[in-house]
Amino acid sequence: MAPQRLPQDAANLELRFGLRVGAALSERSATPGHDVFERLRVAREQALARAREARAALPARQAKEAGSVLVQSQGTLALGGSPLSEGFRWWAPLASLVPLLLLVLGLVLIDQWHDRLQTATVAEVDSALLSDDLPPDAYTDPGFSEFLKAPEQH
User: In tens digits, what is the pLDDT along the chain, a chain of 154 residues?
Assistant: First the structure.
C-alpha cells in the first residue's frame, strides 16, 4: 500500500509543530537549570578562596614575582623572573653561546674530514700512477692524451 498524501495544510501544520518542538528542545538545552548555576557559583567561590589562601601563603617577594605574568596582545604571555633565575643569571649568556660554539666546532670537523678525504683521493691517484706500467712522463705527452681520447681501433 502506498502512503497517503496529506493535504497541504496538514503538511504545513506538521512542519510548524516540528519546528516549535525543535526550538523548545534547543532552548531548554541552551539554558542550564538553576542547580547547575548554583554548583558553578559554589565551585567558583571555592576556587577564589583557594587562590587567596595560596597568595597569602607566599612571601611578599614571591607574590610579586608570581604576579608578573603579563597578557600581551593576541593572547601571548610574558613571564617575569622566577626565584630560581636570580641565582643563575649567568646561564643566559652561556646558553646563547653554546649553539654558536657547536656550530663552529661542527664546521671545523667538516673541514678536517674534507681535507682527509681529498688527501686520500690524491694518495690513491698517486699510487695508481706510480704502480702503473707507463712512466709518469707519458701522462704529460700531448700525443698520449689524444691516444686516450681516440676510439679503440683493432
Answer: 555 665 678 778 888 888 888 888 777 766 777 787 788 888 888 888 888 887 777 765 555 555 555 555 555 655 555 545 555 677 777 888 999 999 999 999 999 999 999 999 999 988 887 787 777 777 788 887 777 777 766 4
**For the chain, what percentages of helix, strand and coil (3-state, to nearest 5) are there?**
75, 5, 20
Residue with cell 548554583: 38
Report yes or no: 80 and 65 within 8 Å, Cβ to Cβ: yes
Question: What CA–CA distance (Å, rounded) separates 104 from 137?
Answer: 44
pTM: 0.34
Cα angle for residues 97, 99, 100 (degrees, 5° grid): 65
Provide the residue ranges of all domains of the chain, joining segments of one domain with +. 98-154
Report the 3 state secondary structure along 103-117. Answer: HHHHHHHHHHHHHHH
**Alpha-carbon distances of 64 from 1, 11, 78, 87, rounded to whole Å:** 81, 69, 15, 17
CB 68 within 8 A of CB 81: yes
Residues 39, 43, 44, 45, CA torsion sign: positive
